[in-house]
Amino acid sequence: MQAKTLAFIGAGNMAKAIIGGLIAQGYDAKKITASGPRIENLQKVTDDFSVNITTDNLAAVRNAEVIILSVKPQMLKQVATELSSALAHKPLIISLAAGITTESLERWLNGNLSIVRSMPNTPSQVLLGATGLFANRFVSDEQKNIANEILSAVGIVSWVEQEHLINSVTAVSGSGPAYYFLFMEAMIDAAIAQGLSRETATALTLQTALGAATLAAKSDLDVAELRRRVTSPKGTTEQAILSFEKDQLRAIVKDAMQACTHRAEELSRLLGE
Questions:
Q1: Which residues in the chain come in under a pLDDT of 70?
Q2: What are the structural domains, with CATH classification, of the chain?
Q3: Rounded CA separation 87/77 (Å)
Q4: What CA–CA distance (Å, rounded) separates 139 from 254?
Q5: Largest distance between two CA atoms of the chain
Q6: Nearest residue to 102 via CA among 263, 63, 92, 15
Q7: Which residues, in sequence order, are CB contacts of 117 under 8 Å at separation 6+?
Q8: What does the CA dihedral 252, 254, 256, 260 come to, rounded to 10 degrees?
Q9: Could you tell me how far CA 216 lies from the centroid of its own chain?
Q10: Across the beta sheet with 52-54, what order do the strands follow?
Q11: So what's the pLDDT on residue 101?
């Protein structure tokens, strides 16, 4: 991607993660502007990455070829309405806000604009993110490539063809880190109850999670086969797996992800009004 002029509206953790990922890949810092209401927060961004900063959102977007909206969903209507008067040059809009549909953004931005809706997750902060993307009807193939490269700076990206599937992406990768944190928390507590120290239980649990994920990512085998290969007949692992199956772990996960998707759909309706 040739260095496009980027404007980040909002300079929170996700914006800083993407900026950091781009800079690490050699992106020209002079082509990036971060905007936000608090100069002290912006100063930290420019100290870390040498990008341009401003507290004036309109000034940030006026000449930007790509605008990344990284404000809280509850603030996005106000921010988008403010920006609508400065978008006559038809930039590409990338939204990082959960729950806000492209239809709502089109209405607030007051124009037939190219909009990519994204659902990144918190591991993007360590460049191991997983982001779902959806493009509205105005997005060109070139603009899809641009969005792909920007979000790829913090991890992998996957496109969906129907916007409602972004809610399923939320249930898998957007909220997914919390599921793993909860499972790790439960493993640590169980290990402590069996007599291990918190330090040992935590170290072993985290390394096991990291190792299992890394092995799964690098293996040609699917996760079901990897699980079977660890589960020796009549062995220790088999007893744990049988206990999970007896307690209907699969059904618990399915119900939890459905609840997550349902709430994402509700928020889309509420926040888009």
A1: 1-2
A2: 6-165 (3.40.50.720), 176-268 (1.10.3730.10)
A3: 15
A4: 33
A5: 68
A6: 92
A7: 95, 100, 101, 102, 105, 133, 134, 135, 136, 163, 166
A8: 180
A9: 21
A10: 52-54, 32-35, 6-9, 66-69, 92-95, 114-119, 129-135, 155-159
A11: 94
Residue appearing with tokens 């927060």: 41
Helices marked H in 120-222: 141-152, 165-169, 176-193, 198-218
**Rounded Cα–Cα distance for residues 200 and 152 (Å):** 35
Note the pLDDT tens digit of each residue in 106-139: 999 988 999 999 999 999 999 999 999 999 999 9
pLDDT of residue 180: 98
| Four-CA torsion 124, 130, 135, 141, nearest 10 degrees | 90
Q: Which residues pair with 32 in a beta bridge?
A: 6
pLDDT of residue 174: 95
Closest CA to 93 of 62, 114, 120: 114
What does the pLDDT look like over 160-199, one tens digit per residue? Answer: 999 999 999 999 999 999 999 999 999 999 999 999 999 9
What is the pLDDT at residue 271?
A: 85
